[in-house]
Amino acid sequence: MTTSLPTIDQITQAVRRIVAEVLAVPAPQLGTDTDLREVEGADSIKVLRLIARIEREYDVQLEDEDVFGVSTIAEIAGVLQKALKL
């Protein structure tokens, strides 16, 4: 049985939800181009927590070099989409 991969829109919405929960920010305040480094209350520990949560929810291991080079929800979604296709 083949399972279909989530679309980039579904991935982006899931990443937005996770970011909102981890950073305690209302999801509607987070655009896909929101720089997470500029969100009030965001720090490196919280960003690592959200990456770990994404990895758990999707059962993937994101490459450090990919994760540390991104700063927006859209970029994180792109890295996740790439990992899911492998």
TrEMBL record:
Could you tell me which SUPFAM superfamilies the record lists for this protein?
Answer: ACP-like
Keyword presence, Phosphoprotein: yes
Q: Name one Pfam family in it.
A: PP-binding
UniProt cross-references to Gene3D superfamilies, sorted A to Z: ACP-like (1.10.1200.10)
Q: Which InterPro entries match?
A: ACP-like_sf, PKS_PP-bd, PP-bd_ACP
Q: Which domain of life is it from?
A: Bacteria
Q: Which residues form the Carrier domain?
A: 6-84
Entry annotated with the keyword Nucleotidyltransferase: no
What are the UniProt keywords, alphabetically? Phosphopantetheine, Phosphoprotein
This protein is called Acyl carrier protein
| Protein source organism | Pseudonocardia parietis
